[in-house]
TrEMBL record:
Assigned keywords, A-Z: Membrane, Repeat, TPR repeat, Transmembrane, Transmembrane helix
Secretion signal, residue range per the UniProt entry: none
Transmembrane parts of this sequence: 58-76
SUPFAM superfamilies: TPR-like
Protein name: Cytochrome C biogenesis protein
Source organism (scientific name): Actinobacillus pleuropneumoniae (Haemophilus pleuropneumoniae)
């Protein structure tokens, strides 16, 4: 298992490499924050080692084991931090490296970064899709729909994009499935019967309308899919809540 110092060094090196994805003004700020975190962690490691240096060998070994275990668990957890419905590696890396920032500020920076990249490559459909997801997280649903529409124009009809469009339309329309949202859902599920966004949207709508068994059946379809980015724990909890409503 790697030491805390090695993990700190690797995280800093990854941050330096990742900074190349930013515009120059954001890059400087990002690198400054990464350097500050790196130096702070080095100081913490140094002070800790000085404090335990005089303790008995057995106690020292146990303390180091705890430190290494906690560091390993922390690294494992942050490496799996994800945003809702993306599973995008670039977004995950961005969130890991800037986890100390406020969530809203973090997403704003991510939106700015995507906008800069799209100015350079305006025909990148994947970037348009990512930007749509980022806008959705900020509850800017109309902007999200524009981005998803651009993604469709570049990439063609994709189930995931249509499902995301339906979700944005649903929330923009005060949690109601409009005619065009239903049309997008129908096309998405025709292209992919296990498209998660569409199924989750239909399940939430069914639950809101007190159609609890229908909601449970739809959530079950999502769990049976191969989508690793879904929050299985949250879905299982929702299914349990629906069962409790049925049994009342």
């Amino acid at each position: 298992m790697k030491t805390r110092q090695q993990l700190n060094q690797e995280n800093y090196q990854q941050a330096v490499k990742f900074a190349d994805n930013f515009s120059e003004d954001l890059k400087a700020e990002y690198l400054a924050e990464a350097q500050e975190r790196y130096q702070f962690e080095r100081q913490q490691i140094s002070e800790h080692l000085q404090n335990v240096k005089q303790k008995r060998p057995l106690v020292l070994s146990l303390l180091l084991l705890v430190i290494l275990s906690v560091s390993g668990v922390t690294y494992w957890q942050t490496g799996r931090y994800q945003i809702v419905q993306t599973g995008n590696q670039m977004h995950q890396a961005f969130q890991v490296q800037t986890q100390l920032e406020d969530k809203e500020q973090k997403n704003y920076r991510y939106i700015t970064n995507l906008q800069d990249r799209l100015r350079a490559t305006p025909n990148d459909g994947d970037l348009w899709y990512e930007l749509g997801q980022a806008y959705t997280l900020s509850n800017e649903f109309e902007s999200a729909l524009v981005c998803y529409d651009n993604a469709l124009k570049v990439l063609g009809e994709k189930a995931a994009i249509l499902g995301a469009m339906a979700a944005a339309e649903y929330y923009a329309n005060q949690n109601k499935i409009s005619a065009r949202a239903q049309q997008w859902i129908d096309i998405a599920l025709r292209l992919d019967q296990k498209e998660s966004s569409s199924l989750l949207l239909l399940a939430s709508d069914a639950y809101a309308k007190k159609n609890y068994q229908q909601a449970i059946d739809l959530w079950r379809k999502v769990l049976d899919s191969d989508n690793e980015s879904i929050n299985r724990r949250a879905i299982i909890q929702s299914m349990q809540a629906a069962r409790e409503m049925i049994n009342q």
